[in-house]
Amino acid sequence: MNRADLKYLSEAATSMTDKINEKGRPHNQRYPFQKQHPQITAHLLMEYSERHVPILYGPQIPRRDHDDTRERYSRALLTLFVPWRTVTDLCDINQTWKDALKSRQNRVSIRSWKIIENIQLLHECRKDRDEHLLQVITEA
Fold this sequence. Notes:
single chain, 140 residues, mainly alpha, 2 domains, two-stranded antiparallel ribbon, 6 helices, 4% strand
């Protein structure tokens, strides 16, 4: 967090006429961490002024229609699309990830469900592509 961020946060109560007279593009909205967060003095969250597409590193989100990956699928969706601070916010101690997703699915926004459906559609397209490629190879 630099001086500009601190200035922005301290001027949150500035009058509207002062903000209208500022030159340049509008500031990106900034949000401080909660007081109990260990990095409250060094970090903050800043909302982008333009949309960005996140790129996830690591293993891909599993398919929802495979029973052997259902727990990993549920855990991935909960961690990505449900707000949480500790693991118990996502899944109780004596609960499966599948049951946790079922009980918390109302916390996932409609927009997020569309993204989840697109992820599943991407899996299905890859499967169809692989099947078609195998068919072409066997016919050749």
